[in-house]
């Protein structure tokens, strides 16, 4: 660019938004029909740098619009308004097996959008212009309350206003720890959500939680003065779906209005304890395969368990609306085959009308809120062998991202119908 030319103007609108909201990136005052690279950069809470970038050509008026123009290469290609977010990946030379997850949801994800000259070696050059955007899981006015009642460990998220609101119990998977970002985002959409930690990361071996722990959490949520007591749902992923389906079938205390299971499992947990499942699953570890990168593929473990009727939750007893969200390239678990089994059982029991199912081609295991970076393989602690491995989760980045966006809209619609609309119809 000439020293006498006006500086480029970069705008991101809105510059502050919830993570499930799209933005528009526009650059003006550029030389016409010239190559430029737009790059996003995020420094994670774990200390790692993540980037995404697209190669563009300015139009005849000297503009680049990410929403309207094609990227001709980079971490994404084509017309992708949110490609600078969903295609984020660790910068070259980063540690292996990384997964980008927000830990402190009371602060935003800060993402720097920068413009560079040309398409080659842009990292070695200084940006022409940059600006910082904020991506929030917690909307304005959301309260976060730490939950420790009766030994529980969780975070309760309450929307602004007097309510009352429907409630949602949020259960994550086998990685452990307290994960709050989905709950914070659901609270931003009008639900009181309880994100529940049910084992510490890497400590499942010493955990022997009974289902009373989850029943207690359910009642803490249901009995909250701002929660509509007969409008409580559960959302879960992977290991959390075992807990969810077991509770719905076996617990007289838990009668949810609806349930969402993502990357579902229906293996029983013997003795109504969480560790019962984890004592039985190693018997199938001989089914674990590895890919060319020595990443572990666990889906055959699930297939082996699925062939044993005595190891399956009796989903014929489910009496509430159930939504199953599955990735057809899930390499961590046999989610689609499990959904087939659930569908067959519920249809045979005359309960097929309660089931909503969505399957996504080329989509992996970790189906998260919209624009979350795709994790095709990630670090995982195997409690039984006390070792850290890299598990392959599967999926292709673009289809997986599309599935996260579409499934989130469908999940919100499902929850709205069963936790809001149905309730209003009874008023």
From TrEMBL:
The active site is at 238 (charge relay system), 330 (charge relay system), 365 (charge relay system). Residues 20-148 form the Acyl-CoA thioester hydrolase/bile acid-CoA amino acid N-acetyltransferase domain. GO terms for molecular function: fatty acyl-CoA hydrolase activity. Pfam families: BAAT_C (PF08840), Bile_Hydr_Trans (PF04775). PANTHER family: ACYL-COA THIOESTERASE 17-RELATED (PTHR10824:SF36), ACYL-COENZYME A THIOESTERASE-RELATED (PTHR10824). Belongs to the C/M/P thioester hydrolase family. Residues 210-420 form the BAAT/Acyl-CoA thioester hydrolase C-terminal domain. This is Acyl-CoA thioesterase 15. It comes from Poecilia mexicana. GO terms for biological process: acyl-CoA metabolic process; fatty acid metabolic process.
């Amino acid at each position: 660019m000439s020293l006498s030319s006006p500086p480029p103007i970069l705008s991101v609108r809105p510059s502050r938004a919830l993570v499930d909201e799209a933005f528009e990136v526009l650059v003006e005052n550029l030389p016409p029909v010239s190559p430029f690279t737009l790059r996003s950069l995020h420094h994670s809470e774990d200390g790692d740098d993540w980037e995404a970038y697209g190669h563009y050509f300015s139009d005849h008026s000297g503009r680049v619009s990410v929403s309207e123009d094609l990227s001709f290469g980079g971490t994404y290609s084509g017309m992708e308004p949110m490609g600078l977010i969903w295609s984020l990946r660790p910068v070259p030379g980063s540690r292996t097996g990384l997964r980008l997850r927000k830990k402190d949801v009371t602060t935003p994800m800060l993402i720097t959008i920068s413009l560079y000259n040309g398409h080659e070696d842009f990292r070695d050059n200084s940006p022409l212009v940059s600006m910082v955007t904020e991506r929030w899981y917690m909307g304005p006015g959301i309260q976060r309350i730490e939950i420790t009642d009766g030994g529980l460990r969780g975070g309760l998220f309450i929307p602004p206003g007097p309510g009352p609101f429907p409630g949602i119990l949020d259960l994550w998977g086998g990685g452990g720890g307290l994960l709050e970002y989905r709950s914070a985002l659901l609270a931003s959409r009008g639900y009181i959500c309880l994100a529940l930690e049910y084992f510490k990361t890497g400590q499942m071996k010493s955990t022997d939680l009974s289902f009373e722990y989850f029943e207690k959490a359910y009642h803490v949520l249901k009995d909250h003065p701002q929660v509509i007591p007969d409008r409580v749902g559960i959302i879960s992923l992977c290991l959390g779906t075992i807990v969810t389906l077991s509770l719905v079938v076996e617990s007289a205390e838990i009668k949810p209005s609806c349930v969402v299971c993502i990357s579902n499992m229906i293996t029983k947990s013997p003795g109504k304890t969480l560790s019962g499942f984890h004592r039985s699953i190693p018997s199938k570890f001989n089914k674990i395969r590895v890919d060319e990168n020595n990443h572990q593929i666990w889906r055959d473990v699930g297939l082996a368990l699925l062939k044993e009727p005595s190891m399956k939750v009796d989903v014929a007893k489910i009496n509430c609306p159930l939504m199953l969200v599955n990735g057809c390239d899930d390499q961590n678990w046999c989610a689609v085959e499990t959904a087939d089994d659930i569908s067959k059982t519920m249809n045979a029991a005359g309960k097929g009308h309660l089931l909503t199912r969505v399957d996504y081609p080329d989509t992996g295991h970790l189906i998260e809120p919209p624009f979350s970076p795709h994790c095709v393989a990630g670090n995982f602690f195997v409690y039984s062998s006390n070792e850290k491995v890299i598990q392959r989760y599967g999926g292709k980045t673009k289809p997986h991202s599309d599935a996260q966006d579409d499934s989130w809209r469908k999940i919100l619609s499902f929850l709205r119908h069963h936790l809001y609309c149905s309730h209003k119809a009874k008023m």
